[in-house]
């Protein structure tokens, strides 16, 4: 299959391309689409065959459900049952944006899309191209991150091409993703809302609107064999570069020194910008300033991906503290490390 590249430069509004992509999706094709978090591998969420192709193209286990993308909260009542008032409050505050809600699914949502569950993940992405495509398609678009299963998520159209060339009908280039980590996932089907995956919307912001949120165990530790996290995707070793990763937590000056004392010429280093010149013999990927977690979220996947083009034998990564977007950045680094974390004393 020849993968067609749709280039939609700013300012957006290339009607013809949007309509062509929407038509492809309606017909059951797979198209890589930009969102503000990461690129998605989109298909018509109501078409079980199209959805099956998503799993095949990604090499994703079929029990790992997909997020359906909608253009506004008005669509919630069509696809979800018993929508709690908290869902509308969150949507009002944070949609379009990097927030996914788990709600009860109506039967119109195919079980293949929900990985066999009776709940469905819903999100309204804050990217004008994604919104225009979904509106024009007139159906919710199921879209997991566009990476091959197990690889870091894609934050540029070039990443999507690396992973999906020849496997999907098209890729829409909507520029670099502004957020850089996937959406925050909150489960609203329990009496107390539960954070299933930290992401582009900080937990603190959600708690300001809906009060206390429980943090699922899979956010901070690796599920043990036989344990089934509520977001099935959290069970998989994700975002893993080829070389093994060690995450170094603790105050930045200390974690930088810890890495410095262990690094060899075969070591790759992911560090805050302030410490980059401490590692003259190493291949260094800068994560952004230690005071700028938005920059770190923006960089984290590209940094992890970059080492696969090198010969490094091990990777050390500095880790931000868990407040704000630090919870998501730290979670992605720790998952890449298989939760191999050391504390710099
Ligand atoms: O930012 C994002 O969320 C991106 C963009 C493309 O929107 N999408 C994304 O999708 O990250 P994916 O498939 O890579 O991650 C979705 C996660 C998986 O861990 C999956 O297990 C979980 O959401 N999930 C989906 N439906 C669920 C459900 N009904 N209950 C619990 N977890 C669910
Ligand atoms: Mg993913």
Describe this structure in words.
The protein is of the alpha/beta class. The chain has 2 domains: 216 residues, DHBP synthase, CATH 3.90.870; 99 residues, 3-Layer(aba) Sandwich (Rossmann fold), CATH 3.40.50. It is built from 10 helices and 17 strands. Helix 1 packs across helix 5. The radius of gyration is 20 Å and the shape is globular. It starts with a strand and ends with a strand. The protein binds threonylcarbamoyladenylate (TXA) and magnesium ion.
Number of helices: 10
- Please state the average pLDDT score: 95
Q: In terms of quaternary structure, what is this? A: single chain
Small-molecule components bound = threonylcarbamoyladenylate, magnesium ion
The total tally of domains equals 2
User: Judging from the principal axes of the Cα atoms, what is the shape?
Assistant: globular
């Amino acid at each position: 299959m020849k993968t067609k590249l749709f280039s939609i430069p700013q300012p957006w509004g290339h009607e013809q391309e949007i309509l062509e992509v929407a038509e492809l999706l309606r017909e059951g094709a797979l198209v890589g689409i930009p969102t503000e978090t990461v690129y998605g591998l989109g298909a018509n969420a109501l078409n079980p065959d199209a959805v099956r192709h998503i799993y095949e193209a990604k090499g994703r286990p079929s029990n790992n459900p997909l997020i359906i993308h909608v253009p506004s909260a008005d669509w919630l009542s069509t696809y979800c049952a018993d929508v709690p008032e908290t869902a509308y409050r969150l949507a009002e505050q944070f949609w379009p944006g990097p927030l996914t809600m788990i709600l009860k699914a109506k039967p119109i949502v195919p079980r293949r899309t929900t990985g066999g569950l009776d709940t469905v993940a819903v999100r309204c992405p804050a990217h004008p191209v994604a919104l225009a495509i979904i509106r024009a398609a007139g159906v919710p678009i199921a879209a997991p991150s566009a990476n091959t299963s197990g690889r870091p998520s894609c934050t540029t159209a070039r990443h999507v091409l690396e992973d999906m060339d020849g496997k999907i009908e098209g890729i829409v280039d909507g520029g670099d993703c502004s957020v850089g980590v996937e959406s925050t996932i909150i489960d609203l089907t329990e009496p107390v809302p539960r954070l299933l995956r930290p992401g582009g919307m900080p937990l603190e912001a959600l708690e300001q609107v809906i009060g206390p949120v429980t943090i699922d165990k899979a956010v901070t530790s690796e599920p043990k064999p036989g344990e089934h996290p509520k977001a099935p995707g959290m069970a998989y070793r994700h975002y893993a570069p080829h070389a093994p990763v060690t995450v170094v937590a603790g105050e930045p000056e200390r974690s930088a020194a810890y890495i410095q004392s262990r690094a060899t010429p075969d070591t790759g280093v992911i560090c805050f910008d302030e410490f980059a010149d401490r590692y003259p013999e190493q291949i260094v990927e800068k994560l952004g300033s230690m005071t700028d977690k938005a920059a770190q979220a923006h960089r984290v996947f590209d940094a992890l991906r970059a080492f696969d083009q090198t010969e490094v034998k091990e990777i050390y990564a500095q880790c931000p503290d868990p407040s704000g977007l630090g919870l998501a950045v730290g979670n992605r680094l720790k998952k890449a490390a298989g939760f191999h974390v050391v504390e710099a004393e």
